[in-house]
Amino acid sequence: MWTAVIAVVGTLLGSVATHFFQRQTAERTAALARAEQLRQERISAYSSFADALVDYRRGQNDRWHRGQEAPGSAVAEQSRIDSYRLRSAAHQALIRVQLVCDDTAALELAAAAFEVTNCMHEAQDEDDRAERSEQARETLSEFIGAAAPGVR
To answer: Which positions ≥6 away from 113 have C-beta within 8 Å?
Structure first.
């Protein structure tokens, strides 16, 4: 009789222990999957932002040059319109970064990189334009440097 009771109690304890460990393993697996998904989303958002900002910087340089070569021309107007399209794409990418990034310093650098790029077309001369373009490139590099540890 006692043997049967001990067997039943042992079986119940084994079932409870198995359930406990399986639940812990499942929770750990789910947490790792969520963390990996967030990591992948961050990589995608950060690289999309960098791509969009590089394109926007190129568009702002083009807008400035076309405006200097032939102010008010159809080519200058088209380059201005293209810069608006590129700004919109860069701003959308910045919003994605803001949604997935939890690093305040990286967020500030992303916003600064966007703003520096946004003001490039206001350069007074070629030296000012070149300086603004380089500052935009450097600020983007600083963002990438700040954001990279969060996706490694």
So the answer is: 53, 136, 139, 140, 142, 143
The encoded tokens of residue 32 equal 């790792």
Q: In degrees, to the nearest 5, what angle opens at C-alpha 61 toward C-alphas 122 and 142?
A: 90
Q: 123 Cβ partners below 8 Å, 6+ apart?
A: 64, 129, 131, 132
Distance CA 64, CA 117 (A): 12
Task: State the Cα–Cα distance between residues 129 and 122, nearest whole angstrom.
Answer: 8
* Per-residue pLDDT tens digits for 25-38: 878 888 888 999 99
Q: What ranges do the domains of the chain cover?
A: 42-151
Helix (H) or strand (E) holding 42: helix 2-69
**Other C-beta atoms within 10 Å of 79: how many?**
21
Tally of CA atoms within 13 A in the half-sphere of 78 that contains its CB: 4
pTM, 2 dp: 0.85
